[in-house]
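Pilot study result, target chain (163 residues):
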Amino acid sequence: MSRIITLGNELLKQKSKIITDFNGQITEHAMLMFEILTRSNGIGLASVQIGDLRQIFVVSIPRDKPRIFINPEIIETSLEQEVYEEGCLSIPGINADVTRPYYVKVQAWNEKGKPFTIQAEDLLARVIQHEIDHLNGFLFVDRLHPDKKQKLIKLYNKKSKQE
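Predicted structure:
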């Protein structure tokens, strides 16, 4: 599947499965994800967003190299929080201010099965946290006050029906 699934699809609420087989298919899958990400003008894409419940996401932010994260785990965060407007390819046209740690330290594997640890801050840290949320069955709207979340979901549903 190469189409991004959107709010309302039950897959987005499911926890993704750990990847144990690092073969050529994982690299192919990651390359497909980068293609979709580029086509969609996004900066991060979790595999679940294209209907595949495996723990992999890709990130491509300006002035940084494209990155692949497999089976990622946040092992440290800053106490310092930052508010930033987020959007999501699975909820097109909807943005909201989300508070997240400014810094994260993440352990993950690359497409060859080699473990790595990365320390990230600012936008990269935010995108990593957003995509890890996807792998755990959460959307950015789940981090909002329930009233704000409902308002945005209604707005999204209204916009989707008009298109």
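One observation from the pilot: The CA atoms of residues 45 and 94 lie 16 Å apart. A full batch analysis is planned for the follow-on phase.
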